[in-house]
Each structure stands twice: as structure tokens, then as C-alpha cells.
Amino acid sequence: MTKHVVSLFDESAVMLFPWRDAGYTCWAVDILHPEGVSLGTDKKEGINLVGHDLASHWSPPFDSSSIAFVAAFPPCQHLAISGARWFKGKGLRKLAESINLFATAAEFCEWSTAPYMIENPVSTISTYWRKPDDHYHPFQFSGWCGRDNYTKKTCIWTGGGFIMPPAKTVEEEPDDKYIVNKFPDTPDRPRLRGITPEGVALAVFHANHKEGTYESNIL
User: What whole-number distance in Å separates Cα of residue 208 and Cα of residue 215?
Assistant: First the structure.
């Protein structure tokens, strides 16, 4: 039976790279992808890109029993504590929109019955739903990808038997200047900062991949 891996609210599809290379059928769903379903090119080669507004949900063309793993990265700009000073100016509609998208992710993950993780920075979702099950900084998995040696606290909500990967670091101290220099203060900065660190993607894959062994060659 074909095994599927799904990543929601995921324009970069980085989380899917190891799963794709291991032979899984991968789906990255995000409103920024071309309308409909198309196959990615370059780094996204072989990944099904689904252009869909997840505010109106998405019905996958396969049964939940065939899903091996789900990741979700719902938009956080109206929930993240780092932007708390702007909360009042955003109003109730923005808050409701963000909570609705997070709920869509949670409902899909729980429907799948597969191991899953939902990622957000430190945010108010803990107040509206439940506290995160774990958190990480990219540097904790810099042993998988040395470019990820920086701090950025990220919370994850998990279920379905998700296994939190053990830390694998480089010897150097985290260099926070790296992330500051890489992402200049431009309108595109939030999207760039939201791209999944490649070391995290590999660590999560190796902890939750159930079939056989796999050696990555993507990094």
C-alpha cells in the first residue's frame, strides 16, 4: 500500500524532503502553491504541491489509514507572544482566523491517526487549546545540518505516537547572528524565518520513520 506523508501550511516543503527520498508519496499543502495539484521541481522535485486555502479545509485523495506522518505549520503572526504588543490593534477577526487555521491543522492530524507534530512559536494557543508537548531550538539538531546552529524557541503539539528526536549538536556555541543576518528586515522576512530547519526535518524523520533504514544525501 502506498504510504503518504502530509505537510500542512508548508510552502517550503523542507519537512518532506527525507520522506520523499525514502520513497513515500508526499503532499505539501499551502495557499502559496500553484492552484490545484502539481509536482514540484528543483528541491521540491517529486513532491505533490497542493494550492489550497486550508481555511476551507482540504480533502486528501487517499484514506487516513495510508498516512504515515503529518506535520503542520499553521500561521502564527496573530498568536506569537513575540508580537503581543500589537494584539489589540489586530482585533478579534485576526485572532479568530489564526485559531481557526490552527484548529484545522489539529483536526486533520487527529483524523489521520498517524504520528503528527503541529509547530508554532511560543504563542497564545496554549491558552485556547492546550500546552505544547515539547519545544526545541534549531541548534539542538545542528549535528544534522550545521547551518542550523542558532536559537529560536519553537513549540510543538504532538500525537499519534510521535517520537521527539534526541538532540544532535555541533561543538560550537549557537550563533544567533546567523539568523539575524540571513533574514533582513523585508516583507518576506516572516516567510523566510518560518522555513523548517533542514536539521529538524532530518531528525524528525529518523525518529519517526518506521520502515527500514535510510541515509540522507540532501544536506
Answer: 14
What residues form DSSP beta bridges with 157?
118
pLDDT score at 121: 77
Q: Cα-flanking dihedrals φ and ψ of residue 143, to 5°?
A: -70, -20
- CA dihedral defined by 192, 138, 51, 48, rounded to 10 degrees? 130
Predicted structure pTM score:
0.84
**Residue 185 neighbours by CB distance under 10 Å:** 6
- Which residue reads 500589537 in cell numbers? 86
Rounded CA-CA distance 148/130 in Å is: 28
**Domains detected in the chain:** 4-58+66-208 (3.40.50)
Q: What is the pLDDT of residues 95-136, one digit of tens each?
A: 677 788 888 999 999 999 999 999 987 667 777 778 899 999
